[in-house]
Specification:
seven-stranded mixed β-sheet, 2 domains, homodimer, globular, Aspartate Aminotransferase, domain 2, Aspartate Aminotransferase, domain 1, 13 strands, 14 helices, alpha/beta, four-stranded antiparallel β-sheet
């Protein structure tokens, strides 16, 4: 049977190996496996969220409130925007999917950074859009602007802090850049790790409110998967002008997040203490990765996230390192698929990081 | 900002009103609201599932095992198929979305019943496909075949039992029909309510195994949202030849169901007792709806599902009935949007149905 021709060019996204897979492949006891590959919150999620979800497990039989008003009200209050400026997705991934299907087709172009979140390309390929990428590894807004003028993209993806490298764009420069983009180009600011960046350096801070107040052609993406510790619940959001939100809503399937996810995300916003503690722990532990990199003469990219990217030297091989660690039950992300001789490591709990520092030197 | 032109023709899906909305709109106490509008399982979900999910709420921070092997193995065993014949979606809705995006575009045609599940059309419009519908209210396979020959559709949707009418296609005739369809046309058998049909009448029984064994161009869809009582967890599946599954997999976003949903669905398959009891209760209570319809001279469509469709008489108005019931806290589905002067009512618990029988006559 033949399928649409766009499918031929799509490569399935390779997620960080789940613990279950390592158990199966290597016969390692689950309790001996440490996964630092998917930038989950190593401190889990808020106890308040766990309690709230436990209380409503009976409701698994009931479809969620498809208006998602409780969650939207909480987000609107948090960000100082109106609920008409909000759309909820099954992870911010799904909002990316809506954006691509609403704005791109085989006659249009999308601009993104050389190294960035893989799903931008995967979704763009689903609709056959032309993908253009910068040459530089970090987001360089001058390069972005030159390529914008040359290619007239319908969508520009900016990931700040960037995944999988961890660096972040200066907020003032970013807003100046956006101001130069014409109204027909949709600019996406993917702030999946923004909570971390804000805590580390105020000059990286982009707020949904300033985006909505100033621009009709920009969407800000956020997620509950990282700092809020709800990666398994698949809840993200987009904040934008109501004209953008209305268009994306047409592509939103009903009931796109679960009843328990809706409750989890709503309650997570009430426990900012958990988030701030996670972030504080994260940057304390990150210092140890910086020391480790320095002690082992490895380059580490300055990170504004909950992960670090270790760029290996010539003679070292990121795929081999990741494989060797995997056989010891330590899962990290090899970035060779992104054209980098580097591994991305989620900053874990102190004990998880201890194990990384203990295991890794023997494989360098 | 301009968006892709297909969006202009898309109408957002109107889900059954959630209890939360009725609380807000009419100020009715949530405990006084009865929702018989979304064909959820009125008996909730299995206690075993609730217990299993409660045990792993900590894991909300962790992405699900994206291979979904535990659930796929359980489904494969249940249906006697290989895991390569399976794809899991966020509800069977999402598998419908994959099908549409894999097989349809603005140059192709999709054939569906005059009255059927609304999402087929909504997804088809997202890609600008030409939609053709039969004239008859029940699936008539002769009519389908004539229209297939005339329109050469790339996809044919068959919903059995059909939503929102409840009738089901004879299995033998259905298989004979499929055998006459050429290999390039993808036939979708949506069996969201099949567990109910099988319990009522073996002649309606379509099994995923016979589909996979006999046909390369057919996909069977099932869901955990109805008989398994997990509507809020968003888990459905497609069973088909590996060539179809491979193509759909290219459109599947990673982590498309939650960590808790994966556990819930896997455990739900271990508690067939709950499902069978739900179904038995359903058909016992359905008899009362048949008696009610007869006593009130209303036509009821013979139903193979967990809902009944009551076709009102001239002078009665389904929208008015649904509105009147809503103000009393009873939510049913008005089918006027489908061109029918009818209401669809989920068969509820005995107490819920009592309330329907008590309230409704005054509004007829």
């Amino acid at each position: 049977m033949e399928f649409n021709k766009h499918l031929e060019s799509i490569k399935t996204y390779e997620a960080g190996k789940p613990i279950e897979l390592v158990v199966r492949e290597f016969g390692i006891d689950p309790k001996d496996i440490i996964k630092l590959a998917s930038n989950e919150n190593p401190f889990g999620c808020s106890q308040k969220v766990q309690d709230a979800v436990s209380k409503i497990v009976k409701n698994m039989a009931l479809y969620p409130d498809d208006s998602m008003l409780k969650l939207k009200n909480a987000l609107a209050k948090r960000f100082g925007v109106d609920i008409k400026n909000l759309i909820i997705g099954s992870g911010s991934d799904q909002v990316i999917e809506f954006i691509v299907h609403a704005k791109l087709d085989e006659d249009s172009t999308v601009l993104m950074n050389s190294v960035t979140f893989a799903m931008y390309e995967i979704y763009a390929k689903q609709v056959g859009a032309k993908i253009v990428r910068t040459a530089l590894q970090e987001h360089d807004l001058d390069e972005f602007y030159a390529m914008y003028q040359e290619h007239k993209p319908s969508v520009i993806f900016l990931c700040t802090p960037n995944n999988p490298t961890g660096d972040a764009i200066d907020a003032k420069s970013l807003l100046e850049f956006i101001a130069k983009i014409d109204d027909e180009t949709l600019v996406v600011i993917d702030g999946a790790y923004m909570e971390y960046a804000i805590a580390k350096d105020a000059s990286k801070k982009i707020t949904p409110k300033e985006i909505v107040d100033r621009f009709d052609n920009v969407i800000y993406l956020g997620t509950f998967s990282k700092a809020y510790g709800l990666g398994g619940m698949r809840v993200g959001y987009g904040v934008a002008s109501s004209s953008i939100i209305d268009a994306l809503y047409k592509l939103r399937p009903p009931f796109n997040i679960t009843t328990l996810s809706l409750e989890a995300a709503s309650v997570a916003l009430e426990d900012e203490g958990f988030v701030q503690e996670s972030i504080e722990n994260n940057f304390n532990e990150m210092k140890r990765y910086e020391e480790f990199a320095s002690a082992n003469s490895i380059e580490i990219i300055q990170s504004y996230t909950n992960f670090v990217t270790l760029c290996l030297n010539k003679g070292q091989n990121s795929s081999q390192l990741a494989d060797s660690l995997l056989k010891k039950g330590m899962i990290v992300r090899d970035l060779s698929g992104y054209g980098l001789n580097a591994v991305r490591v989620t900053v874990g709990t102190p004990a998880q990081n201890d194990r990384f520092f203990e295991l890794t030197p023997q494989f360098l």
